[in-house]
Amino acid sequence: MTDAELAAHLAECAGKILLEVRASGMFEGKALGNAGDETANQFLCHALRRQRPDDGLLSEESKDTSERLSKQRVWIVDPVDGTREYGEERSDWAVHVALCVDGRPEVGAVALPGLGKVLCTGKPGELPEMAAKPRMVVSRTRPAAEAVAVANAIGAELVPMGSAGAKAMAVVRGEAEIYLHTGGQYEWDSAAPVAVALAHGLHASRIDGSPLVYNQADTYMPDLLICRAEYAETVLAEVAKLSA
């Protein structure tokens, strides 16, 4: 099984497990989110350690160690991206499985179990046609001021949505053209979505245009831009104006 096939398979399987946990009726709200996180994390970590024992591993739900920093190949996973949405029985949550090589997100899969879909680097599809008016996905609870300002400047429609993976895949799936985030994330929030976005020909970078680099000692990532390549220059220019 190739790395891409493994990522897609594990993301899909973890998604099915999460749906079963939710359907069991044994948990609700925050308890459901915790149960889902723990169960999916156990599955993903055990599977990766068995299938790729020599690679490093970073998961949101496992204690981090410095061991991964010496590895060329590191798997970065988020068992439930959008725990709140999962606990609220919404569909805008995701499972992330990525492989970063020398800090670059080269392989990835994002499962959207609530929609029955898995998007991955192994089988990138063609991007749908863009809408005449750009659409920008933003947090459904706390849209970043910078994103709102850029949307106003370029005449983009704001589309509220849950998890980071759901937002990024909305761009891949043609439901939006731009995902601009400035509220801070961690490596597991974007590694798989960025890998999938890049494989589909989208632009992905920091909001100053610099590359996104993974497997760092500090896993915090302040900002992110994933968008159709046609909008990258315009959005980066508007962001630069805000900090001028």
Automatic annotation (TrEMBL):
Its cofactor is Mg(2+). Pfam families: Inositol_P (PF00459). Gene3D superfamilies: 3.40.190.80, Fructose-1,6-Bisphosphatase, subunit A, domain 1. Mg(2+) binds at residues 60, 78, 81, 189. Keywords: Magnesium, Metal-binding. InterPro entries: CysQ/Inositol_MonoPase (IPR050725), Inositol_monophosphatase-like (IPR000760). It comes from the Bacteria. Coiled coil: none annotated. One of its GO terms (biological process) is 3'-phosphoadenosine 5'-phosphosulfate metabolic process. GO terms for molecular function: 3'(2'),5'-bisphosphate nucleotidase activity; metal ion binding. This is 3'(2'),5'-bisphosphate nucleotidase CysQ. It comes from Qipengyuania aquimaris.
